[in-house]
Amino acid sequence: MPAAMRSSGSEAIRPGLGTWRSLTLSGIGLRMHWLILVLVLLLGALQYRLWVGEGSIAELHSLKREIALEESELERLRARNRELQAEVDDLREGSEAIEERARSELGMIKPGEIFIQVIERPEPPK
């Protein structure tokens, strides 16, 4: 018998089996398309949240900039506090700092000193 004529006989019993298999495979393909679509949408949503949403990379960089600014401001205030503490210590321990402040802020002089005030002439308008 020629090869084309040989058969196991199942084709004769179930003649629509080939059609059924193609429908099943196309159904699986359709399910795969839906699965791929859902996965792509999920990936897009996660990427959106990563780049734009709450807790995103842009927000992280913004917060890091704010932290750096606050740290520099904190260091400036700490330096100012150290200067003020040194001034307080000078005022507590010695009279030179008190004398200097009285002269510069209140215009006071010691007995026997002569106060000379220099007034500069304003430049004439051109």
Explain what the structure shows:
The protein is mostly helical and 126 residues long. The protein has two domains: 18-53; 57-109. It is built from four helices and no strands. It has helices at 10-13, 17-51, 57-93, 96-106. The chain starts with 9 loop residues before the first helix and ends in a 20-residue tail after the last helix. The model has no long low-confidence stretch (mean pLDDT 80).
Inertia-based shape: elongated
Give unreliable regions as ranges. none
The helix/strand series, from N terminus to C terminus, equals HHHH
Please give the number of β-strands.
Answer: 0
- Pairing-aware structural class of the strands and helices? mainly alpha
End-to-end Cα distance = 124 Å
Biggest sheet overview: none
Strand residue content: under 5%
Number of domains: 2
Mean pLDDT level: 80
- The radius of gyration over CA amounts to 45 Å
Number of helices: 4
Question: How are the elements arranged and paired?
Answer:
Blueprint (H helix, E strand, L loop, with lengths): L9 H4 L3 H35 L5 H37 L2 H11 L20
Briefly characterize the structure.
69% of the residues lie in helices and 0% in strands. By secondary structure, the protein is mainly alpha-helical. It is elongated.
Tag the structure with descriptive keywords.
Cell division protein FtsB; 4 helices; Cell_div_FtsB; mainly alpha; transmembrane helix; 126 residues; 2 domains; 69% helix
